Amino acid sequence: MGLRERIGVDLGGRVKLEDGIEWAAQHGVRYIDIQLDTAANAVTAFDDRRAEGVRKLAAERGITLGLHTLSAVNVAEYSPYVADAVDAYLKSYIDIYPKLGAQWIVVHAGYHFTSDIDMRMEAGCARLQRMVDYAEKKGAVLYLENLNNEPADAEVHYLAHTVDEWMYYFDRINSPNFRMSFTANHAHLVPDGVDGFIDAIDFTRVGEVRLADCRRLGKEEHLIPGAGDLDFGNMFKRIESKGFKGHYMNAFGTLDEMLAGREYQLGKARAAGVAVQA
Questions:
Q1: Helix 163-172 vs helix 193-200: angle between axes, to the nearest 10 degrees?
Q2: What is the 8-class DSSP label of residue 224?
Q3: For residues 197 and 202, what is the distance between their CA atoms, to the nearest angstrom?
Q4: Contacts of 78 (CB under 8 A, 6+ apart)
Q5: What mean pLDDT comes out for the span 87-113?
């Protein structure tokens, strides 16, 4: 499979899932992911009949589907009652995974409020371990995403935004059902940088690479490629040289902008000497 076919599109909440599958097929997009949190795509809106229809439609159209949980749900939650709700939320994604024929679920490490970082990391790691155990029983695969940096004076900070924080979870949870979703633009926001992350991580554990543009050491932005200063050519060259054979996932702007962004990315990859065709 060539690089073009390996660059997917994050539907997010932009379109009803069935319509998104049809759109992807029409535009030669092989990989999509989607959140199941709101409106017609809320996880509660899928009965068995609809889920089976989605699974069959994706298979017929040659589309590989992933699910993407909401980072606003705090996986590091430890408060009574609310903590149980977070478990139930994540389990709902794992439960629907086989019904939709999904191939991965992107999850997050949660967030902290500076003074409680140790408690939050411990709670989040314990929860992710429980969810991995549950995913193993259901045949689901979880991808933990490295999240974005927040300004130093912000009250709330995402966890797993540096190499060291991200590795905290992988050092403690060892399962083939627990893999990495490497978001290059998030790495670009911290001193580690894209190259630092690529040097540090084992790409046999990376299931996907997520893409958007942004500005080095800047704020969280999902810009169209070329609007920031992320070096897509170098990124593709270095990741492909690691033997990565998985998919990439565009996550910025509109559906049409992600299609156009794919062409920009392919141009930068070619210029860097990356083989675009299989």
A1: 20
A2: P
A3: 10
A4: 119, 120, 123
A5: 98
DSSP letter for each residue of 93-149: HHHHHHHHT---EEE---EE-STTHHHHHHHHHHHHHHHHHHHHHHT--EEEEP---
Query: CB of 53 within 8 A of CB of 46?
Result: no
The owner of tokens 């141009």 is 267
Q: Which residues contact 191 (CB under 8 A, 6 or more apart)?
A: 217
Q: Which residues contact 85 (CB under 8 A, 6 or more apart)?
A: none
Residues 113-142 have pLDDT tens digits of 999 999 999 999 999 999 999 999 999 999
Q: Which CATH architecture has domain 3-271?
A: Alpha-Beta Barrel (3.20)
CA distances in angstroms from 9 to 52, 249, 256, listed in the order given: 22, 5, 10
DSSP state of 45: G
SS3 label, residue 153? coil
Using the predicted structure, report yes or no on whether residue 278 has a pLDDT greater than 80.
no
Please report which helix (H) or strand (E) contains residue 11, including its range: strand 7-12
If you write DSSP's letter for every residue of 81-97 in order, what string do you get? THHHHHHHHHHHHHHHH
Which own/partner contact pairs does 22-29 have at CB distance under 8 Å and 24+ positions apart?
Answer: 22/57, 22/61, 23/255, 24/61, 24/63, 25/61, 25/62, 25/63, 27/259, 28/4, 29/63, 29/259
* Percent of the chain topping pLDDT 70: 100
Q: What are the helix (H) ranges across the chain?
A: 3-6, 17-26, 48-61, 82-100, 117-138, 163-172, 184-187, 193-200, 232-241, 255-271
Tokens, residue 63: 């589309």
Closest CA to 190 of 216, 169, 210: 216
